Amino acid sequence: MPSKENLDLFDLKKISINRTKDELKAAGQYRQQKITTADLVAFKPVNRDPVAAIKQTEANMIQELLPLRHQRMLASKFAFFRGTAELMERDLKAQNQSGIPTIICGDAHVNNYGFYASPERQLLFGLNDFDEARIGNWESDLKRLLVSAKLAGEENRFTEDDLDQILHLMTKTYRHAIKRVDKLTLAQRFYSSYEIHDMMKSIDTVDDKHHQMTKILNKIIKKSQHSNSEQITQKMAATDNNGQLRFKDNPPRAKHVSAVKYQQIVAGYNAYRSTVRQDIRVFLANFQISDIIRYSVGVGSFGTRCYLILLTGIDGSHLVLQVKEAMPLRYNLLKLPVEEAIQSSVRAGRRIVTAQKVLQSSSDPFLGSTAFGGRSYYIRQFRDMKESINVAKLDRESFNLYCQICAFLLAIAHYQSPTAPMIRGYLKGQKALDQGLVTWTNEYAKQVAVDFQAFQQAVSSK
User: Fold this and answer.
1) What does the pLDDT read at residue 100?
2) From what superkingdom does this record's organism come (predicted)?
């Protein structure tokens, strides 16, 4: 049987409250007395074998994809950091923690933000990966975001002083955003939807009119209008000799599945349809499955089980859905035997879907969960108006603005938890956190460099 701790990892009762907003703020101030800002920013050196932890995580992945996964992780320290959420998740548990339960992303690095379409086809920007989502400490997300900005900024060859200023401003932005959203009513927060230009206007420290970011955004907005299932079908599928529309193979990344796996996925898709809204269920009744392919994506997710379903409508139009394995939380994989971790995470897809709907201002209407073959999955549209900003191509001013937007949106997402007024109480008057987290981030970035070197040596010695 899985441990009680594991079963409680996404127990929403942890954020259920029977106290007023003022009482929650007072509770946050009490937590500040118990775990002060000085405690929260004190870096505690870690002692573990990063290569062993990575191997333990990868034991659950598709082995033929690991060489490509390693190739992606070896591209840079930042790429390695993106692919090893389990290391930081373990390390954060060894640091002082605020103890304020919040629904968190769990992997809030700067490349896990992007554009996506609201059901009304408005282009929004926000967190877009929730595989590691859980109930945890708000500062865990903020610390991961800061370290990712540090590593990405180093790749862009920004100076240490510039990066320190950016990191300082990111934490300040997070604090001020918490203060700002605290003033909204519950209904205002629930119905808020943040479009990217509104975000830029909300942060008045940078004038975007003479900014590289403006040109990038205009290109993305234009490109996103053409990012849909029809474009994907034209690019990734072709008619075979029997006149059937099928995905193109490109092994090992893109590969057709066995007949047995195909039927499992079909059964999982049929089960998924019972989890979506009634209007989506009716809409999907217009489509039939034309093909299914295994298609690997990302860095951290590369090697997990991920499939694309090509649907053809009664009018000949197409819809492409992504079926993505909902992995057990990385930290669980380090604590439990692989099979036990999998068995204890049969509801992982539901965890991810719930977190995404809470933390995003608006979510994909096709988002839902399912299970087949003894594993959990979630399903969503594939690349529908989904775009991202390439942080490697940003100049210092644009990178600074981008990181502020990420910090701002992180605070907005955190404040969807009923316990969030505790964060406001904890942060009130804590300007010292801004510089303190700069120091903590710089120390942890050194640990990432050590881990990356160990990984490089391990791969080269094979």
Assistant:
1) 96
2) Bacteria
CA-wise closest residue to 381 among 242, 276, 228: 228
User: For the chain, what is the total number of helices (H) and then of strands (E)?
Assistant: 21, 12
Cis bond before residue 421 (omega within 30° of 0): no
Per the structure block, which two tokens stand in for 24? Answer: 């929650």
**By the 8 A CB rule, do 394 and 155 touch?**
no
Three-state secondary-structure class, residue 443? helix
> pLDDT digits over 42-62, tens only?
999 998 999 999 998 888 888
Mean pLDDT of 29-34: 96
| Residue 136, beta-bridge partner list | 102
Cβ atoms of 137 and 35 within 8 Å: the answer is no
80 contact partners, CB below 8 Å, separation of at least 6? 73, 74, 448, 451, 452, 455
Of residues 417, 423, 409, the one with CA closest to residue 358: 417
Tokens of 40: 């929260």
Measured CA to CA, the distance from residue 20 to residue 415 in angstroms comes to 15
For residues 155 and 76, is the Cβ–Cβ distance under 8 A? yes
Residue with tokens 């209008």: 225
Closest CA to 395 of 173, 221, 208: 208
Cross-strand bridge partners of residue 323 = 307, 379
**Cα 111-112-118 angle, rounded to 5 deg:** 125
Cα–Cα distance for residue pair 76/248, rounded to 1 Å:
30
**Mean predicted confidence (pLDDT) in 87-104:** 94
The neighbour count for residue 240, using CB atoms within 10 Å, is 10
Q: Which residue has the tokens 């300040």?
A: 172
- Nearest Cα to Cα of residue 197 among 216, 176, 177: 216
pLDDT band at 370 (very low <50, low <70, confident <90, very high): very high
CA distance 326 to 345: 8
348, with CB counted inside 10 A (0-12, 13-18, 19+), is buried
Give the tens place of pLDDT for each residue, 220-260: 777 666 667 888 888 889 988 888 899 999 988 899 999 99
Residue 304's φ and ψ, nearest 5 degrees, are -85, 170
Q: For the residues of 202-232, what is the DSSP string, one character each?
A: H-TTS-GGG-HHHHHHHHHHHHHTT-SHHHH
| pLDDT > 70? residue 161 | yes
Q: Is the pLDDT of residue 333 over 70?
A: no
Residue extents of the structural domains in the chain = 23-225+392-460, 229-381
In which element (H, E) is residue 454 found?
helix 432-460
* Cα dihedral 413/414/417/423 (nearest 10): -150
